[in-house]
Design brief:
2 strands, mainly alpha, two-stranded antiparallel sheet
Length: 151
């Protein structure tokens, strides 16, 4: 019985990890137009140069002369790096704090630690709910002023 319980717990953690991953994909899709519009408004045609500077330490997001902005990590990094320049009129300190929380959630999702999984500290139902509903939906509502629906 204990082995079955452990197996179902592991399945739940894997499912929750996948749910957070799906939420991060939706987050990236939602943030991209908002970030582009905000940066274009602030920097004009030079916005891509600013993005490259923001991601200079993350070269895997820059392929040749093109910037790959499909990863939520890159988008969150851009907001963090440009918080005082491009996003100061758009995002409050609380909103920026939320972006930092999302960056931490994304880091935990991308680099799970097996020892933490075993102790059920990450990807529990509560953590997953707070990550998706609490943070991802909040930033989506902030950006688009409408409700985020997660399936």
């Amino acid at each position: 019985m204990a082995n079955t319980n452990q197996h179902s717990t592991e399945q739940l953690l894997v499912q929750n990890h996948a749910r957070i991953g799906q939420g991060l994909i939706y987050l990236g899709q939602g943030l991209l137009p908002f970030i582009k519009e905000t940066l274009q408004r602030r920097y004009g045609d030079n916005w891509e140069t600013i993005v490259k500077d923001c991601l200079a330490n993350k070269q895997f997001h820059i392929q040749g002369n093109q910037v790959n902005l499909e990863d939520s990590q890159a988008l969150l990094q851009i907001i963090i790096k440009q918080r005082d320049e491009a996003f100061y009129n758009t995002l409050s300190r609380d909103n920026i704090s939320l972006v930092y929380d999302l960056a931490d959630i994304r880091r935990k999702w991308a680099h799970p630690r097996p020892d933490v999984w075993v102790k059920l500290k990450d990807f529990t139902p509560q953590y997953t709910y707070r990550s998706i509903v609490g943070r991802i939906s909040c930033i989506y509502q902030l950006v688009y002023r409408r409700e985020f629906i997660f399936y």
